[in-house]
Protein 1
Amino acid sequence: MSDHLNIRLFRFNPEIDVEPRFEELQVPTFENMAILDVVMHIQNYLDRSLSFRFSCRVGMCGSCALYVNGRPRLACRTQVSALKTQNITIMPLPNLPIIRDLVVDMEPFFEKWKKIKPYYVSRKDIVDPVVVHPDSNEREFIDEMLDCIACGCCYGACSMAATNEEFLGPPALNRAYTLIADKRDAIRVERLKVVDKSYGVWRCHTQFNCSEVCPKNIVPTRSIQNLKKRCVLKKIGVFK
Ligand code: SF4
Ligand code: SF4
Ligand code: FES
């Protein structure tokens, strides 16, 4: 690895900038350096005013997603060496309004989560606690989908989210699927009605951009296809 990186950094301060601009910076490298280390170096030693978000540093909180060399990635889990180049362009996550520099407004993203009611609602006829065994088919079916950390990488990669403000997007649809697949949930049919819309599952063009970038190896496209199947089953009266 070279002893320095050539960084092209997106900057935008709405209080002083008329439009966004790029800054060219050099950052020294060290072993096992991640993109989060790069932006922290810039903030610590080159420009204190740089804004970005992070919290856990271990790929759990989902707050550090950035657009790095043309792809949404978690800054804390992206090793500089994995990019295999000295030239790195760092930008905010696409498809969300920019607040400042690398910080985007996640409100439109979570508004879409709210629409699918992202929490479990227990059926009245079920006496809690209900045990779902970890190795049961029912649990294994949605196993990987439950690992979503709401980082927004898939949302930033989705061309339909880019072109249609209303589209619920891959993370909310993935979450909806995990709940609709749960027979204990009292509002599965209601949830299915929310996603069975032109701005819901039917907007997805099955191009897998979302699935290619998910840091948790979730395949939201598969969840969306499963939702489409259930929408059809509901229309012919098989899904209850
Ligand atoms: S597969 Fe669907 S949800 Fe995923 S990126 Fe493509 S259009 Fe978006
Ligand atoms: S599905 Fe993957 S990429 Fe999308 S928000 Fe969840 S963890 Fe992030
Ligand atoms: S800082 Fe929490 S996921 Fe990167």
Note: The beta strands are 4-11, 21-28, 65-68, 71-74, 87-91, 98-100, 103-104.
Protein 2
Amino acid sequence: MRIAVRYYSKLGHTKTIAEAIAEGAGVAALSVETEPRLSEYTDLLFLGGAPYANTMDNRLREYVDNLDTSMVGKVILFTTSNWSRRTIYAIRKALKAKNIPFDMDYFYAQMLNIKGRKGAAKDFAMEKVRQP
Ligand SMILES: Cc1cc2nc3c(=O)[nH]c(=O)nc-3n(C[C@H](O)[C@H](O)[C@H](O)COP(=O)(O)O)c2cc1C
């Protein structure tokens, strides 16, 4: 099973969680800025971002908009924020429109407790890889 972890992170919180997820999944976490496309078919794509003034960054939006439906089996989302989950809802909506399957389960970390959520993020990914 091919697994990938992609994220967009301005301040580093989502990157930290992406790296913990990647550790649990046994792969590398790559930013959508450096890896704007999946180069090979991916069974499980962990994808994360955060809201900035209620909106996801354009780079993440573009990544989702450019996702090739034939290149991904299922997406599992994660987000960090002060309180909002809207990045999850917005990405789900875009994935639905593209007919890309996604897990209803997602991982959340509040921005003031990023380090404290690293273990849970790793466990979340390990569990998802075991039972995708
Ligand atoms: C300019 C700015 C706007 C933000 N707007 C929101 C917001 O609307 N809702 C929210 O819950 N968090 C908001 N936050 C908090 C970020 O989503 C949070 O710090 C997140 O962890 C940032 O992820 P990153 O470190 O990966 O960039 C905002 C942060 C910044 C800097």
Note: The domain at 3-130 is CATH 3.40.50.360 (Rossmann fold).
